[in-house]
Amino acid sequence: QSGTQSGTQSSQAPEDVIASLHGAAVQELHVAGHADVALEDGNVWKIDDHGSPVRDDVWALLGHFRALHGPRPCLVERDSNLPPLPALLAEAARAETVLFPSQTHAA
């Protein structure tokens, strides 16, 4: 379960979930897009769908993890609804930029 799902579908803020992690135990991070699903009770669940672009709030959580625990290898998950290769490469480059902000990467 992703940090976004754990945090938004529980009483904890996603940032608090990330802060509570034992960072040294995290060997790899996975980020993915999600669909917002409105529930009858008015709540909205974020469902990890691996077919949507990674949203800004997820990139921010990745940056929050890095700030607290340092960078880790990161997999951008896109299993369906694949965009053209340049869009995939742009998401990979954004992950790298979030995790290693002081380094310059060619687009």
Write up this protein.
The protein is α+β, with helices and mostly antiparallel strands and 107 residues long. The chain contains four helices and four strands, in the order H-H-E-E-E-H-E-H. The protein has helices at 3-8, 14-20, 56-69, 85-99; strands at residues 29-32, 34-38, 44-48, 74-77. The strands form two sheets. The protein has a two-stranded parallel ribbon. A hairpin with a 5-residue loop joins strand 2 and strand 3. Helix 2 (14-20) packs parallel to helix 3. The longest helix has 15 residues, at 85-99. The termini are far apart. 16% of the residues are buried. Residues 1-7 have low confidence and may be disordered.
Give descriptors for this structure.
disordered N terminus; two-stranded antiparallel ribbon; 107 residues; two-stranded parallel sheet; alpha+beta; 4 helices
DSSP strand (E) fraction? 15-25%
Give the low-confidence spans: 1-7
- The side-by-side strand order for the widest beta sheet comes to 1-4
The general outline is flat
Could you give the distance between the termini?
31 Å
List the helices and strands in order: HHEEEHEH
Average predicted local confidence, pLDDT: 88
The Rg value, from CA coordinates, equals: 14 Å
Provide the helix percentage. 25-40%
Structural class: alpha+beta
Number of helices: 4
**Major sheet summary line:** 2 strands, parallel
Number of strands: 4
